[in-house]
DNA sequence: ACCTGAACACCGTTCAAGT
DNA sequence: ACCTGAACACCGTTCAAGT
């Protein structure tokens, strides 16, 4: 919660820059050039100020990143029309979160946070937990189910994002390709068998398939 | 594969440090003080040399980290006794990988790699793919299944590791706790209902439950 | 209250030269 | 072939002082 709109209690030098301006400018840098280009110094010059001025509006860089995540979630997480059937509601909600995150790869570095806990994301968590409960899970199992879905979703994003990063800034064959070409088929027969299609198989987007499997497993008879 | 044991082809100044020594020393630093303390300069002084000497044995820091991961996998990924039943074999293999990674939180920053593709980890991938095939999946579905399991596993590790990091270097209440105390029960009834137990529920280790659900869902009738 | 300048204590990596 | 010294082009953050 930014305090920018709070009335000024005491007199003093009028602020030249605001927390909001800091976040907005940071967002512009990140969108244009990636998180790794966001530095306090760069941000300061972009904003026409000095590094230290930023520390009056933001505790440190870590906090700035969290604010950035929040800002992103607030702007882009649109609540979708949800199906009536609770199982499908769980799927659709998770898929929406996944889509928002996938569109924003830089987020990974921040988001590997405890939980997807931007206030604006809570509604999504609610939908998933509620859907699982309506499908018959006791509330503790529903929370655990939500966690499992979150692990799976975050994992997919992180793994894919890093794979993409490796691909762009590295021209030589990946370590994986190297490994797969000289596979011993007597020791690792299955891998040798699929070696040729491995990279095409792993490039396919199977997030939804895995999600459906996970939800089926969470709800299925045990 | 280190080239340290290759016979020297041409004459020249005899090497004072080896790639192996670089990796071993790096490992010691990381084990003792965490990845964030591993810098090329630090490593150089620790090894009794200069930063630039390292670049004769390692392409750059990125490569050093990959070597470190490989080294870790080779030393600690012990092949377990596996159950005969294929479904249980998949579970047991994934659990072993998970355990090795969980014991080594620094690995997250590296491991968010394309795949868990250290050569020594391939045997584990083989077991999972093979188990899924023996349970009746066609080989492409088995590879996708492996990917889903990997996403789930990597996600669990990443999320938990970051949560732990936040907890240690931050004394004030987490953002999450803050959010959960002022939940609106009319807007988010389910979350309000479980708010009190949320943190205990999310601290529980439910990796295995989620894994079982996922594997059930991957194999179950659809 | 808010901002500035200078400084502290670092980074990864390159270049040119030495042995 | 291997190593060194000095330098480049940066970091995040603190401190003391200014308005």
TrEMBL record, chains A, B:
PANTHER family: HTH-TYPE TRANSCRIPTIONAL REGULATOR RUTR, TRANSCRIPTIONAL REGULATORY PROTEIN. Keywords: DNA-binding, Transcription, Transcription regulation. Residues 39-58 bind DNA. It holds the Pfam family TetR_N. SUPFAM superfamilies: Homeodomain-like (SSF46689), Tetracyclin repressor-like, C-terminal domain (SSF48498). InterPro entries: Homeodomain-like_sf, HTH-type_TetR-like_transc_reg, HTH_TetR, Repressor_TetR_C, Tet_transcr_reg_TetR-rel_C_sf. It comes from Streptomyces nondiastaticus. Residues 16-76 form the HTH tetR-type domain. This is TetR/AcrR family transcriptional regulator.
